[in-house]
Write a structure and sequence with these properties.
With about 200 residues, the chain is mostly helical. It contains nine helices and two strands, in the order ββααααααααα.
């Protein structure tokens, strides 16, 4: 397939969207992680947390801080984060390695507690994946990629109903892209269809 207008062919001969073509960190994330299926509680909770911290910021900023986030949040193990108290909030607010936003920090802790509570029913990962749509976008250009969908709106409402915060429809669509629920790789990208969830 001929690369589209928003795809850049790298020196390795592989086509990627412009956002993943230059920065080595973003390029590696795109090539190895973004859009691949994440179906376990721990993985989904971590990504919900990071997507929440990303709100209003660039993903590159969050990705660069991810090691510090993991250290600060006990590797995003839900049971450990759910046990955080006021002293932990203050510790996190003093940690220059992460995004020091009190509401986002408190949301990550509250979301851990909500994640633990969900185990009595279907569990976080199964709940999130239950909002997988019947089809996925097939964008040629970057401006054809949605920023939210009926499913991300419904997922946002359901998570909020269950006590989650910083899970708006746009944030949840970004989550769905990141963990493979939808495939928004450009049709000219070497990663299109690589999740095994969707046909090219």
């Amino acid at each position: 397939m001929t690369p589209g207008p928003n795809v850049v062919v790298g020196d390795d001969g592989l086509a990627r969207p412009a956002w993943a073509a230059a920065d080595p960190l973003l390029r590696d994330y795109y090539d190895t992680e973004w859009g691949m299926p994440v179906t376990d509680e721990h993985g989904v909770y971590e990504r919900i947390s990071l997507e929440g911290f990303q709100a209003g910021l660039s993903w590159a900023t969050i990705l660069r801080k991810r090691p510090a986030f993991r250290a600060a949040f006990s590797d995003f193990v839900p049971d450990k984060v759910a046990a955080f108290g006021d002293a932990d909030v203050e510790r996190l607010m003093a940690d220059a390695g992460i995004v020091r936003n009190r509401k986002k920090i408190e949301a990550a802790i509250g979301n851990a507690r909500a994640t633990v509570a969900l185990r009595e029913e279907m569990g976080l990962a199964k709940l999130v994946w239950s909002f997988r749509p019947e089809d996925t976008p097939r964008p040629v250009r970057f401006d054809e990629i949605p920023t939210k969908s009926a499913e991300s709106i419904a997922l946002s409402k359901e998570l909020r109903r269950r006590g989650f915060a910083f899970v708006g429809p746009t944030t949840m669509y970004a989550l769905m892209e990141a963990i493979g629920i939808v495939d928004t790789h450009l049709l000219g990208s070497h990663r299109r269809g690589s999740s095994g969830i969707w046909a090219v």
